[in-house]
TrEMBL record:
Xref: Gene3D superfamilies: Winged helix-like DNA-binding domain superfamily/Winged helix DNA-binding domain
Domain annotation HTH luxR-type: ranges: 258-323
Organism encoding this protein: Streptomyces iakyrus
Stated name of the protein: LuxR C-terminal-related transcriptional regulator
Residue segments, region Disordered: 323-347
Signal peptide annotation: none
Annotated Pfam families: GerE
Length: 347
């Protein structure tokens, strides 16, 4: 519904020019207007908003606003229907091309190696990690989820870490807070000395190892028997950014965890409270914090006792009332009172 009779009126009925608005509004109010009034606005005749009065051709009568609205809505409906048909055609085309793509044999990798390589099996993963270790000259960044590191795991990678230290490579490791309680990790960090800096968070992303900000390794399945070796610059840069942001939020391993501000509630219990408030089940909370489900439930029981909650539903209310459903309060935040536990207040 566009008018093009004059270059200054290239519009449709959905956006009348100022002059056309005035003349059409006057015609609706009065029932008709002299033909000469429409000479400056030929768009009104082209858009069929005005048409000659059959009783007197020197006058123009308006099309009712209701009819104009019906036309506009019908036009919108037609445009939407046409768009849906085009989208349907595009989806069908994409599926067809995708089917063809599955039949094409992959091209041979470039001389410098593929941007993404699937490593199937622990032996291939180990070999690729050894190769990346030998080529590394400056920096290694790692994220190690899962709570307390087993001494067997630490021993397995010790030879690579010592080789890196010998070449002056700097290492930064991220763990969960639970890892602080593992003697194996403390011994490993003592062995590595200043070559390794470690920090901890309530929870971290899945395992990640980055060498010289050029190659990254991440798990490709839940039991970690498959991994992805990533060398695409954009992907690696993204992972480095994720690591750096987590690193800034983390707490140095040798620094104490911040106090919750509420007597009788530990930092870990506050983390559990926040995840409970988000609606997570015990098993999910345990996995995210790197603890066993049994340990998680023991902390939940202590939370309930401290907050005076007789049920899970009441515990959720108590958590919210005590302000434990969010990040830990800062040192300058006002005191918080634990409901029904008058003797326990935030310090």
């Amino acid at each position: 519904m566009a008018g093009h009779g004059a270059e200054q009126h290239p519009h449709g009925a959905d956006r009348l020019c100022e002059a056309g608005d005035r003349v059409y509004s006057r015609a609706v109010r009065r029932g008709r207007v002299p033909r000469r009034d429409a000479d400056p606005v030929p768009c009104l005749l082209e858009l069929a908003l005005l048409h000659p009065d059959p009783d007197d051709m020197d006058w123009l009568v308006p099309t009712s606003p209701q009819e104009v609205m019906t036309r506009l809505l019908r036009g919108m409906h037609d445009e939407v229907s046409a768009s849906q048909r085009r989208v349907g055609s595009a989806v069908a085309a994409v599926e067809w091309y995708a089917g063809l793509g599955r039949q094409v044999r992959p091209a041979a990798p470039a001389a410098e190696g593929p941007a993404i390589r699937v490593l199937d099996g622990l032996a291939r993963i180990q070999a690729a990690m050894d190769e990346a270790t030998q080529a590394c000259t400056a920096e290694v960044l790692t994220v190690q989820p899962g709570g307390i590191r087993r001494e067997a795991e630490l021993s397995e990678g010790l030879h690579r870490a010592l080789a890196l230290r010998g070449r002056g490579v700097r290492m930064r490791d991220l763990y969960t807070h639970v890892a602080r309680h593992g003697q194996g990790l403390l011994t490993y960090l003592e062995l590595m000395g200043d070559a390794v800096e470690a920090r901890t968070l309530d929870e971290v992303i899945d395992r990640l190892i980055l060498f010289d900000r050029t190659v990254a390794f991440i798990p490709a399945n839940t039991d970690r028997t498959m991994a992805l070796e990533l060398r695409h610059p954009a992907i690696v840069e993204y992972l480095v950014t994720v690591f750096d942001r987590l690193w800034r939020l983390a707490i140095p391993l040798k620094a104490p965890l911040p106090d919750t501000g509420i007597e009788g509630i530990s930092h870990r219990e506050q983390s559990i409270a926040a995840l409970l408030a988000e609606g997570h089940q015990d098993a999910v909370i345990a996995e995210r914090l790197g603890i066993s489900v049994r340990t998680c439930r023991a902390h939940i029981a202590r939370l309930s006792e401290t907050l005076g909650a007789a049920s899970r539903t009441q515990l959720g209310v108590r958590i919210a009332q005590a302000g434990l459903d969010g990040p830990p309060p800062s040192a300058v935040s006002p005191s918080l009172s634990v409901p029904d536990q008058g003797s326990r207040t935030a310090r």
